[in-house]
Amino acid sequence: MTAPAIEFREVRKSYAAGRPALDGLTLSVGGGETVALVGPSGCGKTTALKLVNRLLEPDSGEILFFGRPVVREEPVALRRQLGYVIQEGGLLPHWSVSENVETVPRLLGWDPKKRRARAEEVLAMVQLPASEFADRRPRELSGGQRQRVGVARALAANPPVVLMDEPFGALDPLARRAIQQEFLAWKGKLDKAVLLVTHDLEEAFLLADRVAVLYQGKVRQAGTRGEILSRPADSFVSDFVSGSRP
Predict the structure, then answer these.
(1) Per-residue pLDDT tens digits for 223-234
(2) Domain limits at 61?
(3) Model pTM score
(4) CA angle (40 as vertex; 36, 45 as ends), nearest 5
């Protein structure tokens, strides 16, 4: 049996003040699967992402990356196998769009011609033709365009896993809907494992194959939209789903 792309096994992590951020998180993300983490603020969603790429270390438990404990992976080498998308893209303001997109391929030692070709390919995928956008600076882009560049950068080195932390939260509704549809289009073609953090339950149901509802650092329920809406695991999930939907 193929190992999951990401697996959390009874992972615990406390904030500096001692309050648990994660308290026994157990969850897996299969290859090619998109799993969304939802839940109230402070439930551990972003902490889970930071543990995968070793920006944080767990207090106990284990995180596996294709069956290998991430604590045994060299952090920089691990991060080069992960795409990471955050709000507004997190772009370097003094670099051009193309230079931003080429960041990881450059670190991996790709030759300039190959880097440029890949940047053009992924920019086309997110509806930003290189002929028009490659030489622009982030300040010359709209919020939606910057977010598209952030997605293109995360995909540039063709990583098997993409982590997304509230990637579309800062966008206006029209831009958000457009990029959500683009996400659905490319995720079906690229066969990547995606771990998505969002506060928007409808976005989670739209984009993810499974949704994990977190509360107080634990998964209260993980399942499809139909499973969670028709058979909530407990009163918290029922109340959260009802309260989060318009």
Answers:
(1) 999 999 999 999
(2) 1-81+160-246
(3) 0.91
(4) 45
Structure tokens at 13: 């992590």
95 and 138 both lie in a single domain:
yes
**Gap between the Cα atoms of 85 and 103, Å rounded:** 13
Interatomic CA distance for residues 85 and 179, integer angstroms: 13
| Cα–Cα distance measured from residue 116 to residue 120, given in angstroms and rounded to the nearest whole number | 6
Q: Which of 161, 167, 164 is nearest to 144 (CA)?
A: 167
Residue 237 zone, left/alpha/beta (φ > 0; ψ -120 to 50; rest): alpha
- Helix (H/G/I), strand (E/B), else coil: 212: strand
d(CA 86, CA 26): 23
Question: CA 105 → CA 146, 156, 239, distances in Å?
Answer: 19, 7, 45
DSSP of 80-114: TTEEEEEGGGG--TTS-HHHHHTHHHHHTT--HHH
**Within a domain: 86:** no
